[in-house]
Design goal:
The protein is α+β, with helices and mostly antiparallel strands. The protein is built from 4 helices and 4 strands. α2 packs across α4.
Length: about 100
């Protein structure tokens, strides 16, 4: 997965006094994960990821560079899509190590 993903919003939101029709979400850093103190998912009994909405909203604010009040404006379909984008960052390495 790339270091950033652009998600076109189904419903525009306002952030920093501007209307946004898309969000560019970047991969969180280890420091940000430690600051938030939680992953955006838990694992179900069958080891499938389950979205943690409160935590996902914190990551959206940090990784998209928007205030939490703007996160609260997200349409549910956009929130769901952004949640899985963020979870994807945790499920795939940032890059493949070079082979010897």
């Amino acid at each position: 997965m790339t270091a950033t993903t652009v998600h076109p919003l189904n419903v525009p939101i306002t952030a920093h006094g501007e209307q946004l029709t898309e969000l560019e979400v970047r991969r969180p850093t280890t420091k940000e994960v430690r600051t938030i103190k939680a992953l955006p998912y838990t694992l179900s009994e069958n080891s499938m990821p389950v979205v943690e909405p409160d935590v996902v909203c914190k990551y959206i604010a940090v990784c998209a560079g928007i205030p939490q009040s703007s996160v609260e404006q997200l349409d549910l379909a956009d929130l769901n899509a952004l949640a899985w984008i963020l979870i994807g960052f945790f499920m795939t390495p940032a890059s493949t190590p070079p082979s010897a």
